[in-house]
Amino acid sequence: MAEALAVLPDAKLAAVGSRTAEKAESFGRTFDVPLRFERYEDLVSCPEVDVVYVATPHVFHHRDATLALRAGKPVLCEKPLTVNVKEAESLVAAARSEGLFLMEAMWTRFVPAVVRLREWVAAGTIGEVHSMVADIGWAQPYDPEGRIYSPDLAGGALLDVGVYPVSLASMLLGTPTAVSGVMHPAPTGVDAQCAVSLAYPSGAVAAFVATLPVDTPRDLLVIGSEGWIRAHPPITHPAGLTRGAHDRSKETVELPILGNGYTHEAIEAMDCLRAGKLESETMPLDESLSVMKTLDSIRELWGLRYPADGG
């Protein structure tokens, strides 16, 4: 995000907070951040800060985003919004009670290719959507103490990378009526990889594989009654689309991202704040809650619970 903001002339990275003074100082020097705090309380109370970007591990999102909201600061919070829907509902309620902007930082929603994908689907260019197929994975070395594989830090493939296809399916098809799936656990018990299917009221289905041990092509394919759309990899920030029809004709468009891609969600947050909006129409809070419910339902199938879930 520091790199993304640097290419926007109307954005300023004013302050950084970290869990240690050393890390805050190091980050501040690297990205020329004038204010550096070792306490998040000092960061969120800083008058130079207009909006807080929460990029801590997702097990801390509820705590850190709530801290910022209670201090009167709008929040852009990394995906997934929280660990579970109970935390997400609490966070959304806090934003609404304070009358402050809150958005899940699902950067994929805002890159130009996904914007065009959404427009093509809405315009009926491939007819009625029947299915969505995706895969996502970056090879992550096994570390039982690291964020990716630790139950205490709500690790696992689903919440780390599977949230991307779940959110994209939500964008295109809405809230699923049924979920199914299998997972293979890491030695720590979190899902090292999973395969998930989602069913929707229209009769459409979505399927995806999310994995931690290996790289995947990171493809996204949307299939309709009159054609299909393939996003150019990676699924998280495609820079182009290919659309095909049943007559075998094809159209390819290149839609480069600005900066490293995170720039687009920053633009959305700033536009919303300037317009006095409390949430984004592209990533609305009720949809973030729906995505979180879907993720909870998938984990419930597997009996995968984290300390953050309680009980």
H/I helix tally:
9
Distance N to C terminus: 35 Å
CATH superfamily annotation of the largest domain: Dihydrodipicolinate Reductase, domain 2
Structural class: alpha/beta
Strand share of the residues? 15-25%
Question: At the third CATH level, what is the topology name of the largest domain?
Answer: Dihydrodipicolinate Reductase, domain 2
How helix-rich are the residues, as a percent range?
Answer: 25-40%
How many distinct folded domains?
Answer: 2
CATH top level assignment of the largest domain: Alpha Beta
Which strand order does the major sheet show?
7-8-9-6-10-11-12-13
The counted number of beta strands is: 13
The averaged pLDDT comes out at 97
Q: Give, in order, the helices and strands.
A: HEHEHEHEHEHEHEEEEEEEHH
Task: Write the CATH architecture name of the largest domain.
Answer: 2-Layer Sandwich
Q: Key terms for this structure?
A:
single chain, 311 residues, alpha/beta, Rossmann fold, Dihydrodipicolinate Reductase, domain 2, 2 domains, 8-stranded mixed β-sheet, 3-stranded parallel β-sheet, 9 helices, 13 strands, 23% strand, globular
